[in-house]
Amino acid sequence: PILCILAILVLNLGVESAVLELNVRGVDGNPAAGVVFQIFPGSVGVDDDVMPLVLGKPSADKRDNDGDGEIDEAGEDFAGYATNADGKLRLDLADGLYTLVGFSQSRHLLLVTEASVPDSVVIDAADAVPVDISCLAVDGSAIVGAEIFFRPTKRSRASVGFTNNGGLLRARISTGEYHAVLWSGSGEGPHYLILPYQVVAAPDTEVD
What we know:
Blueprint: E1 9-10, E2 17-25, E3 36-41, E4 53-54, E5 81-82, E6 88-94, E7 96-104, E8 109-117, E9 119-124, E10 129-134, E11 147-151, E12 159-162, E13 168-173, E14 176-184, E15 191-200, E16 205-207
Parallel strand pairs: 1-4, 2-9, 8-13, 10-16
Antiparallel strand pairs: 2-6, 3-5, 3-7, 7-8, 10-13, 11-12, 11-14, 14-15
């Protein structure tokens, strides 16, 4: 997978906190477990270089930080904060406005919303837009196993999964503006491509 060096903003523990509760539903209406959220202070744009929050020490925060359902396992890949088996996530944050960027490679999801803390937010993946992605090399052959990112801000991970044997991937992505990124070391790679300022809006959008 692409390596993204994330600058980290650690919350000042002396600041009085409030609760943000997220309830995430999958496309089928069932609880969506394993959706990893990065939390950005304020309202962020596609070119903003804003640092995501880290709430304490990831190796001992008693949270699933990579969406695999495991808590504080050795060598855990810190990506953010994942929803539990009930599709829920509870975070203690200072009062204010935040941008929430939730992604799942296995579900092919990218969910972006804003919330003012304290708040309780229901996010329904069925509201996201189906986006068909086709990845082809210069010679027209399919780029297999390419990891696809739709980044609503520079520091977001925002991986929606990998292309299949035909170089295709269908993801569900919240409406908005993104830098789309393709990364693959397969075939005649490595392939690394950035398509800036891609706008996702209904109806279906295809990115070549």
